[in-house]
Amino acid sequence: MITSEQIEALLASDAEGPTLIVTAGTVVVVPASALDSERYRGAVEIISRHDLVAQLGTDAPSRRDLKETAARLDTAVTQLGA
User: Alpha-carbon distance 72 to 50, whole Å?
Assistant: First the structure.
């Protein structure tokens, strides 16, 4: 469900406070201000760019780091049943 490309999109987003979410079975990056909107009600928040960069220790991770992060987040989401 979560791919390294989606992790890259989160890191590259120019939105204010971008956050990776799952909504209606789709993984998308949205600005933090949209999280309380009707459109994203019930969405599962996965990780914000701020938290991702803090975990990775960089905003320019290697391809391997992107893949490992995507796999880890995908496992977490799958366990939640999102």
Answer: 17
Count of positions (residues) in the chain: 82
**Separation CA 24–CA 42 (nearest Å):** 9
Distance CA 28, CA 52 (A): 15
- DSSP 8-state symbol, 36: T
Dist. CA 16–CA 77, nearest whole Å = 24
Residue 81 main-chain phi, psi, to 5 deg:
80, 25
With a CB cutoff of 8 Å and minimum separation 6, the contacts of 71 are none
pLDDT, tens digit (0-9, with 9 covering 90-100), for 26-67: 999 999 999 999 999 999 999 999 999 999 999 999 999 999
